[in-house]
Amino acid sequence: MSLNFQLEAQEGLARAGRMVLPHGLVETPVFMPVGTVATVKAVPQDVLEELGAQIILGNTYHLYLRPGYEQVRILGGLHRFMSWDRPMLTDSGGFQVFSLSDLRKLTEDGVTFRSHLDGSSHFFSPERSMEIQIALGADIIMAFDECTEHPAERSRAKQSMELTLRWASRSKTYFEEHKAEVPWRKVSSFEFQVSTESKHCHPETRNPKLETGVQSLFGIVQGGMYPDLRKECAERLVEMNFPGYAIGGLSVGEPRDLTYEVVNATVPHLPQNKPRYLMGVGTPDEIVEYVAQGVDMMDCVLPTRAARHGLLFTSHGKLNIKGARYALDEGPIDPNCGCKVCSRYSRAYLRHLYAANELLAQVLNTIHNLAFYLDTMRAVRQSILLGDFSRFHSEFRSRGLNSPAHT
Ligand SMILES: [Zn+2]
């Protein structure tokens, strides 16, 4: 078995569910912190566990370049390499190839690109992306897609969508033939017994039955900003029968209203009984909004990246810790936040750390921002379970504190 997804409650389009993966349970809707190169920047794994991160994301493009997927495979896969026993997801590498690298050539076969690190030449195809993602061994992996640029003419978006569909089919074929090669499948039951007793392991989050499970390959809906293309792409992917579906190609510079419109036009064409993952969004306001539209999973670099720049999310809106007005402020970042940073440190101290360019500033700021996102999503989930989501949603919306307009 790869993935078992059960809906527990629904209110409007919003859903609360449970997803069982080879490395444990994920309660949805869920926010996934981004751990680009096998680390959520500035936060050790034990702190991520304390914060209640249920699943984290790794970036295939970055991990392929450094340390390299063969190295990770030899070391038993990403979970073992980074000592993270809970579920993980990797992206296909497509988005970064198109956004970060010097793109040399796109053909039917795949993409030749130059590394943003040293300019060396590399080639990604659906088969290669699957080979890398199987070696990394995340619980959920993504089909190789072309992230359509914005703006794109309809004909261009259509052509790009057709390529993504052909690549999805090739990704699935390769995955089906090679899925037994995932490194943790080779972990014997004896080894598992030993590892669950070690201090690095968290037996309550592990499910020995599923050590013999397989990864889940999700399809990605593209189609630019054209609702009819999104519908067509979703329907044709659903025919290929993936265990879950992602909505890609958004948050690529389009206005937020358009993102909402495209998500709205896509979700109704995805199956009720499978998880829906919206890639690369958003602010705290936006994640609540997308749950209201029927999305189950989200990831974004915003809480971690903003934290490293001193930008903190709070229940009263955004706060820039650099501000001189905090120099003598003994209050916490957010009086309504129960995180270990807010319960211990003052704004004055955090401002000092940031101004002095101390490493601890990045650590503490990131812990608070992740706590804020994860707590927000837990509150959203709880409100759906209690049948109270529409009130929660309108209250959150009327505050409008963390929306892009306030950036
Ligand atoms: Zn806090």
Annotate the secondary structure layout.
Elements: E1 4-11, E2 14-21, E3 24-28, E4 30-32, H1 45-51, E5 56-58, H2 60-65, H3 69-74, H4 78-82, E6 88-90, H5 94-99, E7 102-106, E8 111-114, E9 121-124, H6 126-136, E10 140-142, H7 154-178, H8 189-197, E11 216-221, H9 227-240, E12 245-247, H10 256-266, E13 276-278, H11 284-292, E14 297-299, H12 302-308, E15 311-314, E16 317-320, H13 347-355, H14 359-385, H15 389-399
Parallel strand pairs: 4-14, 5-6, 10-11, 11-12, 12-13, 13-14
Antiparallel strand pairs: 1-2, 2-3, 7-8, 8-9, 15-16
The structure holds zinc ion.
Zinc ion is lined by residues 333-334, 337, 339, 341-342, 368, 371.
What would your notes on this structure say?
This protein is α/β, with parallel strands linked by helices. It contains 15 helices and 16 strands. The chain has helices at 45-51, 60-65, 69-74, 78-82, 94-99, 126-136, 154-178, 189-197, 227-240, 256-266, 284-292, 302-308, 347-355, 359-385, 389-399; strands at 4-11, 14-21, 24-28, 30-32, 56-58, 88-90, 102-106, 111-114, 121-124, 140-142, 216-221, 245-247, 276-278, 297-299, 311-314, 317-320. It has a six-stranded parallel beta sheet. The chain has a three-stranded antiparallel beta sheet with strand order 1-2-3. The protein has a three-stranded antiparallel beta sheet with strand order 7-8-9. The longest helix is centred in the C-terminal third of the chain and has 27 residues, at 359-385. It is globular, with a radius of gyration of 21 Å. The termini are far apart. The model is unreliable at 188-199 and 201-211 (pLDDT under 50).
